[in-house]
Amino acid sequence: MSRSPYETEPQLPSLPGEILAYYERGGELTRLREGAGRLEFWRTRDLLRRLLPGAPARVLDVGGGTGIHAEWLAGDGHRVEVVDPVPMHVERSERLPGVTARLGDARALPAEDAAHDAVLLLGPLYHLPERPDRVRALAEARRAVRPGGVVVAATINRFAGLNDSLRQGNYFIPERRERTDAVSDHGRHRYSPADPDFTTAYFADPADVPGEFAEAGLAPDGQYGVEGVAWLMGGVEEWLDDPERREAVLAATRRIEAEPSLLGASGHVLTVGRRPGEDLQGGHG
Q1: Helix (H) or strand (E) holding 56
Q2: Contact 83, 104 (CB under 8 A)
Q3: What is the mean pLDDT of each run of 10 residues along the chain (285 residues)?
Q4: Are 122 and 14 in contact (CB under 8 A)?
């Protein structure tokens, strides 16, 4: 089996302890299944169903967590493998019908060259504060996807923390405001016991991400705001509970998903790239 060229290098560092501890709390079991998190889940699913090739495609879900997206992808008829650095996530994912899972690092994927039709990175770039590590993860995705195949990566927006802290009222707490403003300046969110709601992370400027794709050898092919501005609205949870209003929210968010002037308002952005080569069948919808 063809392996990553990085396997001849010194072993990559393990997942930082504070990040592993954060995910071992089990929040990923419910984060996208309850409350306002459902907006991120439904919008990501909507986008992926339009961006990915038709089933059955071989999909590598890197940083797939507890299988929140692998589950419906397998249900749609895709062949899905989850790679994740958190043992609890792998254990949960491999219980899902039609899904295989293994431990692994996005920067040195346990995957054959050009073996997948699509590679997803819906979390790894969050926790790679240094650009060379992000490019390395994207280069590994390029290696693992076939020529013409699609790579979709999620990033947290540079000002998501500022917007969210304003929405929650935490921005009025001086020490929280200081940390939030620092992230807005350079994108690096440093773990602090005084701010346990998140862990070490990188908040990306959407304009920078296509350049990282290009550096990794991927041809950038579009960006999409996941939550748009809807996630900042005070009534969004109640709207999502109402089927009619939920569909209106999703339709409104889809309407502005690719508007460049609004990308930075979304909590998350999906950036799409392709490995140069023959295009996949199907379009971007």
Answers
A1: none
A2: yes
A3: 40 75 91 95 98 97 97 98 96 97 96 98 96 97 98 97 92 91 90 77 96 98 97 94 97 97 96 81 38
A4: no
